[in-house]
Design brief:
Number of helices of chain A: 11
Helix content of chain B: 25-40%
Helix content of chain A: 55-70%
Largest sheet of chain B: 7 strands, antiparallel
Shape of chain B: globular
Strand order of the largest sheet of chain A: 1-2-4-3
Order of helices and strands of chain A: HHHEHEEEHHHHHHH
Structural class of chain A: alpha+beta
Order of helices and strands of chain B: HHHEEHEEHEEEH
Radius of gyration of chain A: 21 Å
Number of strands of chain A: 4
Oligomer: heterodimer
Largest interface: A-B, 57 and 41 residues
Amino acid sequence: MNWPSDWGLRIRMFVTMFLLFGLYLVFAVFLASYFGGGIWMMVVLMGGFSIAQYFFSDRLTLWSMGAKKVSPEEYPELHGMVGRLSQQADLPTPTVAVVDSAMPNAFATGRSKNHAAVCVTTGIMNTLTQDELEGVIAHELAHIKNRDMAVMTAASLLSTIAFVIVRWGWLFGGGRNGRGGNQAPIYIAILASLVVWIVSFLLIRLLSRYREYAADRGGAIITGKPSALASALLKISGRMDKVPEQDLREQAEMNAFFIVPVSKGWLANLFRTHPSTERRVERLREMERELETY
Amino acid sequence: MGVLDTIREVLGFSAEHDATRPWDADDLFQLSAASVTMEADLDYDPLAVGGLCFGSVSSTDFTSALRDVEGVLRGPGFAEIRTDDHGYTWAVCERPTFEDVLAELYVAADTLDERGYGDRLLAAVFPFEAHGGRQDGRDAGQVVYWVYSFRRGSFYPFAPSSSGEKSRDSTTEVKLQSVLGDELDVEDDTSYWYPLWPDEPGNHPWE
C-alpha cells in the first residue's frame, strides 16, 4: 500500500518539539546563570529519578497497573496476534501482559523495542472483535516503534524539574554559595519555573496528542484496516463511561499510557493527553477513504 | 541505527515507514540452493508445498488483487487461498517439485507487489521433512520450516517440537541456522524468529 504521508502532522510535531526545546534551553540558561547550590542538587536528583523511571518503565508500569506477564500457553491467541503484528511492524515480539479488569483498555510501555511491553485488559479482549483488537495492539506497537516513551520522557524532564522548583523551591533559598551580586532571590526562580511549567505542560499535552495521531496512523498502516481501529476506539470510548468511580480515580494517573483515556467529566481540549475520539475516528476514516480511492 | 531512523522516531512516523518497507524479490531464490544442502547434509527433504502469508486490507481493490493471485496460482497441482484463525490470508500451493513451489509463490508475491500490496506480505513458509533412521535422536518425519520474513528481508528457521505442544525445538533451529548460514541470509537476532503456529497442532502453519 502506498499511503500518502501526513506532512501536516509531522510539521506540527516538529514545531511543538522545537518550541519546547527552546523554552527548556532558555530555562536552563536562566537557572545556570543566576542560581547555584540547592537548585542544582535538585535538578540532578530529579533528572536521576526521571532517567531511572525511563529505564525501568516496562516493569514499573506493568507493576503499577497490576498487569501480569502472560505466556504463549496461557494466551495463545493474544500471543499469536502480537507476534504477527510485530512481524509486520518489524519489531521483536514485546512482553505480553494482561490486566484483570473489566475496563476495556490497552497500553504500551518500555524504553526501547527490546525492552517493550504491550498490555491489554481482559475487558478489551471481551469487548472487541479480532480485527478491532488487532487495530488496538498495532496502535500500541506503533507507540513502541516511534519510541514514544523516550520522546515523552525527554519532553517532560525539565517540566518536572520546573514543577519541583515551584513546589519546593522555597526550601532552598537563594543559594548561600552565590557568586557575588549575581544571585537572584529565590522567588524569581519560582516565578520563572511556574511560567515554564505551565507553558511546557500545554506543549507536552499537545505533543502527546500528536503522538496519538501518529500511532493511530502507524497502527492503521500495520494492520491495513483503518476502519477496524476506528470502530475499536468508538467501542472503547462508549464503554468508558460505565466504569465505577473508584476505578477512575485509581487509574487517572495512568491516563497518558492508555489508548483512550478515562475522562472525568469535562476536560478542556487543551489539557487532553489524547485527541478526542471523534477527531481520531475522523482521521482514520480519511485513511479508509484513501484506501478505496487509491 | 542511522540518523534517519532517529528522525523518523522523533517525528513519530517510524511505525508507518517500517511497516511499508519494500522487499527484495531475489532473496526468495536463495532457498533453491539451500534446499540441496538441506537434503545432502542434513537429510531433510523439501516438501513440494509452501505457503505465502499476508495480511488483508479492508478495500475493494485488495479483493480484486486477491483474485489476481488466485489466477496466477491456477497451474498444475493443488493451490488455494485460505484464511487462518488469526485472520491472515495464505496462498498455498503444491507442485511436482520444490523449485516449482518456489517459483509459484514468488509470482504470487510479485503479483501482490505489483498491485501495490507488497507491504502486506508477512512471510513465505517452506516445510522440510526429516528422513527416518538417523542416530541423533530426532524423530523421522519431523517437519521444520524455513520462513522468509518480508519485512526483515531474511530467513529464519522454525522447528515446532514433535510433542504437539506449542513449543519450539531450539536445538534444531540453531543447527539449521549454523549449517545454512552461508547460503541463506539468516536473521541474526533471534528475537525476530516469530513462530507461526498452525490452527491445529501437527499441521502446517496454514492449515
